[in-house]
Amino acid sequence: SMGHAEDGAGKLAAAARWLMEEGARGHPVNEMRDVARFSSEENHAALAEGFCRSLYGPIHGEISAAIDSGEFRNGDPAAMTWAFLGLVSGMLDVSGVPAGAGKDSETMADEMVGIFLRGALAREEDR
After folding, report:
1. Which strand (E) or helix (H) includes residue 18?
2. Could you tell me how far CA 37 lies from the centroid of its own chain?
3. What is the torsional sign of CA 47, 49, 71, 67?
4. How far is CA 46 from CA 28, 43, 58, 71, 125, in A?
5. Looking only at Cα atoms, what is the longest distance across the chain?
6. 52 phi and psi angles, rounded to 5 deg
7. Any residues with CB less than 8 A from the CB of 58 and at least 6 apart, and which?
8. Rounded distance, CA 101 to CA 103, Å?
9. Angle separating helix axes 28-38 and 8-25, nearest 10 degrees
10. Collapsed DSSP state (helix, strand, coil) of residue 67
11. How far, in Å, CA of 117 to CA of 83, rounded?
């Protein structure tokens, strides 16, 4: 779990692995989206609060802490959190297609976190 990982990168990897595993059993992010679409207005606040407490909040907290410690660059933690959740959500949406076959969810999660952390651009040390 996120609590056992030592640094921000490790905590995000743990979160991504958990979400990929949960995604195999039924996509939690999509579930919240679908429930919100069909529920009445008075339930929206509770759903939003649940999403913030269970998913957005903990990840935002870890990203903020990693920025504060200097592990992550000084960026907007909210934007980084949504980017991370968007990547995981997108990975869950496509992980059922043949391109994902032969890769277990943990490997896919780790690669996705690597893309989030380092981006796609080659750096001097990569060339």
Report:
1. helix 8-25
2. 22
3. positive
4. 16, 5, 17, 33, 47
5. 54
6. -65, -40
7. 2, 15
8. 5
9. 60
10. helix
11. 11
Give dist(CA 14, CA 120) in Å, integer.
21
**Which residues, 6 or more positions from 6, have their beta carbon under 8 angstroms from its beta carbon?**
none
3-state helix, strand, coil in the chain (%, to 5): 75, 0, 25
What's the pTM? 0.74
Distance of CA 83 to the CA centre of its chain: 8
* CB-CB contact of 28 with 56 (8 Å): no
pLDDT score at 98: 43
Q: What is the pLDDT of residues 56-106, one digit of tens each?
A: 899 999 999 999 999 999 999 999 999 998 888 777 766 554 444 445 778
Do 108 and 90 meet the contact criterion of CB atoms below 8 Å apart?
no
Q: Looking up tokens 């504060």, which residue turns up?
A: 68
Q: What stretches of 13-65 adopt beta strand conformation (E)?
A: none
Q: What does the block give as tokens for 111?
A: 């690669």
